[in-house]
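Data deposition worksheet. Section B asks for the primary sequence of the deposited chain exactly as it was used as input, without tags or linkers unless they were present during the calculation. Section C holds the resulting structure in token form. Section D is free text for depositor observations; keep each observation to a single sentence. Incomplete worksheets are returned to the depositor.
Section A, Depositor: J.P.
Section B:
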Amino acid sequence: MAQHFITRAVLQAARSLPRYPNLDVIDLACGRGEIAASLAKDGCPVRGSRFRADDYELASAKPVFDGSFVVDEGVDLEAKLPYESSSFDVVILAEVIEHLESHRPIVAEIGRILRPGGHLILSTPNIARLHSRLHFLLSGTHKLIRRRVGWDIPPDEFYAYHANPVDFPVLHTLLYHAGLRVTDLRFTRFKWGHAWTALAWPFVALAVTRETSHRLESPLHAAGERDLRRWMLHPAMLFSEQLLLVARK
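Section C:
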């Protein structure tokens, strides 16, 4: 279930899209339905989906399904989605993709169900932010919001944990092959206590530029690396607690 500051940032991204609120929206794995309900209240035609009835719900919190949008139950995000091609103007995938065993099927399916000119709004814990990179350097583990999957977690409950943190360079390529290009990165939350990590920016800029400039095997490879460099040095990539991206088909 997305925290309030994430929900707010996702809604701001959606409300900034062209033609809003005249957009057909699908909120995949919509949890308690806060995002979908807010968009429906604005006037968007909205659907939601859930895989299990208890997905992303807290025992002390009730769902906000108020009849303003349809919720499709039993939608497996690692299989073919039960929606026609080019069905939606906006797909929202908020704090979901890091729970999936593989990212490739859902990204390909999102590309299929989006209409040309449609948008994906995706949020996930940002393991590429500078604070997380330092944490990984020192500990060998990603900086996650939830605890890691441990020996006590049976395999059929992995989905409830951040079992597959997102590697942005790989996601960047998966989006391209699904017909999507990243058009914006946004902040969810900036922690001032981590501002000191900005001191590393010159070294990060040099390293990213070097990494995305050598061994370029074709013009298409070079174009992809230039685009990747742009996003890897974006302030939201370096400092936002979540990776919140907007991609256009």
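Section D:
Residues 219-232 form the longest helix (14 residues).
The helical segments are 4-15, 34-42, 104-113, 130-139, 168-177, 201-211, 219-232, 235-239.
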